[in-house]
Amino acid sequence: MKAALVGADGTLLHEERRATGRERGPEAVVETILGFAADLRAYGEQHFGEAAVAAGVAVPGIIDAERGIAVYAANLGWRDLPLRDLLGERLGSIPVALGHDVRTGGLAEGRSGAGRGADRFLFVALGTGIAGAIGIDGVIEAGAHGSAGEIGHVVVRPDGPECGCGQRGCLETLASAAAVTRAWAAACGDPSQDAADCARAVDAGDPTALRVWADAVDALAAGLVTAITLLDPRTLIIGGGLAEAGETLFTPLRAAVEERITFQTLPHIVPATLGDTAGCLGAGLLAWDLLATEVSV
After folding, report:
1. Mean pLDDT within 74-82
2. Which residue has the higher pLDDT, 297 or 193?
3. CA triplet 74, 76, 78: central angle to 5 degrees?
4. What is the pLDDT of residues 214-253, one digit of tens each?
5. Which pLDDT belongs to residue 10?
6. pLDDT at 165 over 70
7. SS3 of 106, please?
8. Distance separating alpha carbons of residues 289 and 297, to the nearest angstrom
9. Are 274 and 104 in contact (CB under 8 A)?
10. 40-58 per-position pLDDT tens digit
11. Higher model confidence: residue 238 or residue 8?
């Protein structure tokens, strides 16, 4: 877990990390989050002379931001968790905003990172899975049911691998960091190898690695062109673990996307710049946005 105190101007004033400890069960994780938040607020009082006036929290899975409920998180074992209310109670009834982890990271990248100044952007995180955040004039579009941007479940290979969502050939089964890890470990015969190892082998000119990498890039380009066709973003921001490969990813990816473009306008395809601080910064922005909304009301 990562947490921070965030100033009104978006400055990260203080950051901390703690183990999630999900092996202890969902209730213990919730208690750890509540305790972490309370400790952070106390730190602010002690070192900055004032307590936090609002809180933002970003979690994985399906969320209901309007009601402040973490609806479902497979990795954490949550179902219908009233996280906003629980945090509000622990923090002395201050306002609390709840957000989706990738959309919250996308909010930060859009306002303060690689998408700064772009009126329309798409942020795509390539990690264990693939998820996206649709940015419009500095605000993230959550969709009618809170699940907009799930680009990882766009089918790009109908006869491809089975996905946990029940479909076959979803983008994240072929182009996520986890997918590249699986493909490379199988191709090189070493189960200890991962996507970063594959990227290094690509740089070294390994023909097997080049094939695995090209397959992933081709699938990713297909998914991104679908998103470009639907959303027409000005800037396309790529983040997550796979993006750490730098130009080993971006050079062939830009070429593959451009190759597939016909009538669409090619967006700027850029790496995310905030790294793993994006979630903390985005959660802080959610909190400040919530305060601004309450003041205007």
Report:
1. 86
2. 193
3. 75
4. 999 999 999 999 999 999 999 999 999 999 999 999 999 9
5. 83
6. yes
7. helix
8. 12
9. no
10. 999 999 999 988 999 999 9
11. 238
pLDDT at 105: 93
**145 and 129 in contact (C-beta within 8 Å)?**
no
> Under a CB-based contact definition with an 8 Å cutoff, are residues 10 and 281 in contact?
yes
Alpha helices (H) along the chain: 26-48, 83-90, 101-112, 172-175, 177-188, 195-203, 207-231, 247-260, 278-296
φ, ψ at 139 (rounded to 5°): -120, 145
- The 10 Å CB-count burial string (b at 16+, else e) for 151-165 is bbbbbbbeebeebee
Beta bridge partners of 5: 14
pLDDT > 90 fraction of the chain, expressed in percent and rounded: 76
Widest pairwise Cα distance in the chain = 61
- By the 10 Å C-beta count (0-12 exposed, 13-18 middle, 19+ buried), 37 is classed as buried
How far is the C-alpha of 45 from the C-alpha of 26, rounded, in Å? 29
Q: Report which DSSP code applies to 138.
A: T
User: Which residue in 118, 84, 121, 87 sits closest to 99, CA to CA?
Assistant: 84
The pTM for the full model equals: 0.88
- Burial readout 38-57 (b: 16 or more C-beta within 10 A, e: otherwise): eebbebbeeeeeebbebbbb
At residue 133's C-alpha, the angle toward residues 130 and 134, to 5°, is 135
DSSP per residue, 48-98: HSS--S-EEEEESSEEETTTTEEEEETTTTEEEE-HHHHHHHHTTS--EEE
